[in-house]
Amino acid sequence: MIKGLWSKVRLVCGNHSDEEKIIMSPHEGANSAISKALYRSSSGMFYSCPKYYPENRNENEPCCRNHISVKEFEDMIGYIANTVCKYESMGGTFEIVGLTWKSRSGVEYSVINQTDEHIDIKCVNEKALWKK
Ligand SMILES: [Zn+2]
User: Fold this and answer.
1) What percentage of the chain reaches a pLDDT higher than 90?
2) How many angstroms is it from 82 CA to the middle of ligand 1?
3) In the chain, which end has fewer C-beta atoms inside a 10 angstrom radius, N or C?
4) Residues near 107 by beta carbon (within 8 Å), at least 6 away in sequence
């Protein structure tokens, strides 16, 4: 097992160019119409792109709706923990850069960078982006 997996993982918004590397952060969203419509829950916490909020955007920058629920985030941590366990039980080392997968609710993840301090995971929630 990896110690402190939770705190190492950084979510990178997959709705931008690779150079930008925009880190998503947890937000309280109890009254967010979007989170209610998607999750029908009032448990308000979710991870969202800072570009969702006007104060983080330039005048002409489009609003980014990419976000995932805390449940999604937990599932993602669980997936990584399981994968690492599997690797280790086969005698491998903990190296997961390049790993990609799609969650049950359709969020796409890929591990783009891994250091001793951080594991950067790019995520795109197509549903949230309303591309479909
Ligand atoms: Zn974004």
Assistant:
1) 53
2) 27
3) C
4) 68, 72, 76, 123, 124, 125, 126, 127
Tokens found for residue 54: 């006007």
Domain ranges of the chain: 5-129
Count of alpha carbons within 13 angstroms of residue 77, beta-carbon side? 17
Residue list, CB under 5 A from ion ligand 1: 13, 15, 49, 51, 64, 66
Tens digits of residue pLDDT in 12-46: 999 998 888 999 998 876 555 555 555 555 456 78
Q: Which two tokens stand for residue 13?
A: 């918004």
Helix (H), strand (E) counts: the chain: 4, 7
- pLDDT (average), residues 96-101: 94
Give me ligand 1 centre to Cα 96, in Å.
23
